[in-house]
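Appendix C: a fully annotated inverse folding record. The material below is reproduced so that readers can follow the format used throughout the book. The structure is listed first as tokens, followed by the designed sequence.
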């Protein structure tokens, strides 16, 4: 998979409260090596604003809502995430920002690699030159 896509997750509706899950390759197209989450984001703040050379991610709005903005070097696409039963698959080499966080929102991110600063491209012009 090399295109961003919204992936629906299993959803067990229950009067006691709903349940969704991710069981690695059954739901998302990679094996999970790392999970992190972003929370307590002050109004108006932007997270991300970088690309990964080879890392893939899957982003879920576990609570609240936010926008994931992806740029492929030519075009920008905005994905509004506001439910915990679907997420956005982000392939490698997309410039990705996260913004418009609602109060008390929680962004959960699954990645296929452990954290490594060398995976990051943090300069947009460098990123664009690599997509040409
Ligand atoms: P970073 O990915 O740069 O955040 P953002 O995408 O919002 O710009 O991460 C911020 C800092 O957190 C980074 O300097 C190192 C640390 N960090 C880890 O140690 N492990 C991780 O898995 C992540 C995502 C970040």
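Designed amino acids, in order:
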């Amino acid at each position: 998979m090399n295109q961003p896509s919204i992936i629906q997750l299993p959803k067990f509706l229950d009067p006691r409260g709903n349940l969704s899950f991710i069981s690695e390759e059954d739901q998302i197209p990679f094996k999970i090596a790392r999970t992190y989450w972003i929370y307590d984001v002050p109004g108006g703040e932007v997270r991300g604003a970088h690309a990964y050379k080879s890392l893939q991610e899957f982003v879920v709005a576990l609570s609240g809502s936010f926008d994931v903005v992806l740029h492929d070097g030519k075009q920008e696409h905005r994905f509004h995430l506001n439910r915990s039963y679907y997420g956005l698959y982000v392939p490698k080499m997309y410039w990705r920002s996260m913004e418009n966080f609602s109060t008390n929102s929680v962004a959960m991110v699954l990645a296929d690699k452990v954290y490594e600063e060398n995976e990051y491209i943090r300069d947009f012009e460098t990123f664009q030159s690599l997509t040409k």
